[in-house]
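A protein record in our archive is deliberately plain, so that people and models can read it alike. The record that follows is passed on verbatim for readers who wish to inspect the format.
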Amino acid sequence: MSAKVTGGCHCGEVRYECTEAPLKAGHCQCENCQKFSGTGHASNVMLLKEAFSSTGEVSTYEYQAESGNTMARAFCPKCGTPVYGTSSGNEAVVMVRAGGMDDPTLFDPAFVLFTTKGQDWDTVDENIPSFPGMPG
């Protein structure tokens, strides 16, 4: 992926930019990602928080993950698009959805997480390393 990632919400009210290359990218089939994406998995890109900035008002929803970490999901209050997320388990990063990037073709998934929670109808590339949960 390129060194700069830009993106935002559907209506354009919220925009983001990261001036550093993504750290990791992959799919997550956990039940939370299924609910938040409205489908079988979320396709996420991990960005360095210190190189990340956003403009526009976001609403935030916080919840506790199975790990015990506090997760925060920021979304556009106008169009509802999920924009980014954070976790108390790793406060140095921000996660964005691949579909929200201005150039989603930059997404190059390296893993699939929580495959034990995956739906039979949700298939991902079998050649990508897969994990039944969150690797250690």
Summary: Strands lie at 5-8, 15-18, 24-28, 42-48, 52-55, 59-64, 70-75, 82-87, 93-97, 112-113.
